[in-house]
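Hey team,

Sharing the Shikimate dehydrogenase (NADP(+)) run so nobody has to redo it. Sequence (271 residues) first:
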Amino acid sequence: MEKFGLLGEKLGHSFSKEIHKAFFKTIQKEAEYSLIEKKYEEIPNFLEKLRNGEYKGINVTIPYKVEIMQYLDEISPVAKEIGAVNTVSVKDGKLIGDNTDYFGFIKTLKIKNIKIEGSKVLILGTGGAAKSVYNALIDEGAEHIYVATISENDPFKVRKYDRLLNYSEIRNIKSVNLIVNCTPVGMYPEINMSPLEEVNLIQTDYLVDLIYNPEETVLMKKYRLKGAECVNGFMMLISQAIKSEEIWNDKIYNENISKEIYNKLVKKLYK
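Structure output:
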């Protein structure tokens, strides 16, 4: 039986196992997907097991999407451009990194009919997910992107007409068309936290919070009450998972599978 999994540090919040299990059932495939919690120093040994065929492929999540790149033999052009890897496949003993967050985010925008062309966007966070989102927004035609960071000398690279800023500066932005939360602030089990203080809750038409557990974060609740359309990260998680399966299995699956799995799991996981 083929084995796949998710590599991360703490995975109690993850729905990935349920998504891939539903995917295997939908395409009638015998396979296994597990959650693989590892400390940073354990990664090299684990990747050797991966190279030797213990798994056919893995996904990578917080906090290893950037760190894992140094251990890989090849990195796809998309992942290289983004500077983060969330999918690793094994081919002929080589570890090959790719990024499906990029595709998952774009699919979410299209399904929710959020137009990016000519828009002004605020991204919260500068980690691996933020890099994917930033590149996706550029490719979809965003006119101006603000990226909020907590670091003083953050190496996150932006275009000359975009801006890397501290959270304390957000309140000076009058309004944006879209806010994307790429931080884990508000994720289970710390569900009462928000990445933005009240003074920084600037006007926006849309909020996409990449967190999917809980179903509605504190940030989403606040913006829903302000009249913004709010979307969590569940559809993105499903879409990037299926893109990963396409990479591992060298197949293209019906684009309706994302919606089918979403409809099956949303009632089950958010009851």
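Helices lie at 16-26, 43-51, 77-82, 101-111, 128-139, 218-225, 234-249, 257-269.

Ping me if you want the raw files.
A.
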